[in-house]
Amino acid sequence: MNRTDFATTFLDVCLDVSLALLALAFFLTIIRIIKGPTLPDRVLGLDMLTSVAIGFIAVLGIDTGFTLYVDITIALGLVGFLATVAFARFILARGKTADDGEKKEVRKIDGDPHESGEGAIASRGAER
């Protein structure tokens, strides 16, 4: 076996392994998006899904030698970044996630003076 045959075989094996790992990452990310206990977990899952899609397109570009795939991956990366920023701004503007109830309980247990609620506001007003 000469160097060219070895390089071709090695590249084929690497491409197959990378596609298998990307498929595994894709399915694990889908599970995280479905199960994700909070909205931020789902947003991170969607961001990861974009990254996995970029990986798939890059591997296909290497496999086929078609250089247009590089431009597609760059565009998808930019769109994915902007979508993640938009979702993050939405979460900030919304201000509530699924675990807000848990945070309130922890604040009550810790005696946090910034706990929300009518009693906390009234007690702060009486202190002044």
TrEMBL record:
Main localization (coarse): membrane
Cellular component per GO, a single term: plasma membrane
Chain residue ranges for the region called Disordered: 97-128
Family matches, as InterPro entries: MrpF/PhaF-like
Recorded GO MF terms: sodium:proton antiporter activity
Biased composition (Basic and acidic residues): 97-117
Keyword Cytoplasm tagged: no
Localization per record: Cell membrane
Membrane topology: Multi-pass membrane protein
Residues spanning the membrane: 6-31, 43-62, 68-92
Keywords on record: Cell membrane, Membrane, Transmembrane, Transmembrane helix, Transport
Domain of life: Bacteria
Entries under NCBIfam families matching the protein: PRK12599.1-4
Entry's family note: Belongs to the CPA3 antiporters (TC 2.A.63) subunit F family.
Protein name (Swiss-Prot/TrEMBL): Sodium:proton antiporter
Source organism (scientific name): Jiella pacifica
